[in-house]
Amino acid sequence: MPDALARTEIPDAFEDRHLTLAIEGMTCASCVARIEGAIKRLPGVRAAAVNLATEKADVEFDPAQLTPADVAAAIRKAGYEVPPTTLDLAIEGMTCASCVSRVEKALAAVPGVTGAEVNLATERARVKFRAGEAAASDLLRAVEKAGYKAILAPAASDITDDEQKIRERVRREAWTFGVSALLTLPFVVHMAGGLIGGHPFAFPAWVQLGLASVVQFGAGARFYGPAWRALRAGTGNMDLLVALGTLAAYGLSVWLMFRTVPAGPDALYFEAATVVITLILLGKWLETRAKHSTTAAVRALMKLRPETARVVKDGAEIEVPVEAVASGEIVVVRPGERVAVDGVVVEGTSEVDESLITGESLPVAKAKGDKATGGAINGSGLLKIRATTVGAQSTVARIVALIQGAQASKAPIQRFVDRVSAVFVPIVVAIAAATAAGWLIAGVPVEAAVLNAVAVLVIACPCALGLATPTAIMVGTGVAARNGILIKDAEALERAKSIGTVVFDKTGTLTEGRPKVFEIAACEGESERSLLALAASAQRGSEHPLGRAIVAKAGEMGLALDEPKDFAALAGRGLRASVAGRAVAIGSRRFMAEIGVPTGALESRAKALEEEGRTAIWIAATDPSRLLGLIGIGDSTRPGAAEAVARLKAQGIESVMLTGDNTRTARAVAERIGIQYVRAEVLPGDKAGDVRKIRARGRAVAMVGDGVNDAPALAAADVGIAMGSGTDVAMHTAGVTLMRSDLRMVADAIGVSKATSDRIRWNLFWAFVYNLVAIPAAALGLLTPVIAGAAMAMSSVSVVTSSLLLRRWRPGASSVTPAQAGGHVLEKAGFPLSRE
Question: Which of 170, 292, 581, 806 is within CB 3.0–4.6 Å of 475 for a Cys-Cys bond?
């Protein structure tokens, strides 16, 4: 492997005299000139070219006079940023939590590295470093120097190759265990004879030596390399404990064979070494198989994408590799086939099964204009789809990247485990030495003292500590993804379990986000058609849902619209514009009051609309100021919204509605859904502040939203939850993304987070209790090395198996926690909310 590693080509940020750096903050050509000038002024720079489109700088320099860090520093000094680079490494040779700690320390010590997280279950490291100050080769050398092997991790698209390697590893470990078990069988028979009285199955000492030597130095060879590298690095790991323990038992037996008065075959202890090695090999084989199962969700997602696509070119259908499909090309999907790319249906109708992507069990109807997701299974109709996103930007690829990112992250509790693991092995070795010394002082024979020390060495299990958290996170995030819940990282998962308050945005979240015009009321001198035409013209091109509803109504009525001039949007209030020479203002009652337009003439109509849960949009002329009328707009609540709130309430979680709408409309909507607390007439910029105020009352808060204006509030909450129908900005900011616009999934997201966190704590509890009980028992002579080896082998297997139980989680499997059942904290704290 070291030779193969040496031949691996490493795509560093720089090679010899060439450097490529990404740059953030450029907006125009003057930025390019400024950065190029700053770089060229450095001594040793031969050429510098900055590309505004790619936002990268290419620099030719003399490494004898300049370092990449100098170039990066010059760019920062010029007022721009060189963003950190994230790199994933595949690590070989890690066996326990102590290894994780050592690799992380080695990577963190590389100059320029800003963060490193190592996952024992996936055997991956995710490293963040400042481009130009560190390179991939530096990271690989640091890992190798720490006693391990590392290569660049394969991309998500190469997961099939990765899976094949894991299968080969499972087969190799099974074969090694099988050979070891076969050679150990005579020792087991020998031990069984001792248990039933005497040793009727005893065999010569030289045969024992031969069999034990093959097991010790053949099947057990896998322990010596990592153990030696750990010793050379001045640390310890599980391999060191196993190697020391089994070599001690083997060496004691050899000494007894060849001492002045040789011991008989019944007085040797080869079985202690051989059986321990065989049992640990069994445990490692089962552990690898179980760990492979924890990545089933990612593998299932990657298999969704077909290898080829049928593209229409020059009127003919041509089959091409899916990687060759370009955005804008037309892809044909026949009945029963998987959709090859993300896109929009341009021809045909069908029903599509998206269950593995969104968790939606029922097929979804697709017709012209509908979006189609790559990986979904087409039903009975033929579809033609125009590709929109391909490759790494496709839905499946982004989901896989998100899951892998979550699985690579560390839960906060894991950092405590890492600190324990860093000193675990040295402490165990010290306890083993003290055990041997103590028994010798007590006057027992050397053989008994050594065997008790061996039992201490082989029963200690840092593996279980290292696997307890990452395996649960891998299974938990995987099962969540299969049900349409994407969890961004382990920290979001751990915080979500303690949510006590869920804050919902109204428009587009609690409601469907497709408002319609229900009523038009014009003041004297205006007709309903002229009022609607004026309002629609002013709203032309608006992205606001209410503005789009007004424009859509005008289109339905066949009204001719004018181009607005002097358009100005006022966040949370309304807009100003000039239409056909008339200066108009459109917006809320508050906006009308601000510009001095009385609304008394239509107040009774507005109140009636608001009590029905609809929104009154006021239209006024501003030169001179005069009310022209109002338009009543309503939006249907999402199916399942009331059930979602009821499920949260059953878990002891309070629901709060946060909206820019007026109080009467907000209360009417909240009453239909069953929400107790309403915060109305909130400006978009104030949503994040309100979320922080709720958090300050002592409860963990989740914010559920879907729009760009929800992004600050999502970031301000303990956990942001974005609806899958929302904007990319919202989903990027949120810690949890729901792939379907089903509010019942909010309770499911909290439920799966709680189930995963509970499993982590259960795993850690047993891992700690196991070591706290087993090590003293072995030191007191209560356990033989064979029993100790069996217990150690099964402890890590049991932790992984425990994590795999999470795969049984199903939506709706939620429960109340004491922290969540604490009553109406918001009301007790006096937070200014309206309550139904």
Answer: 806
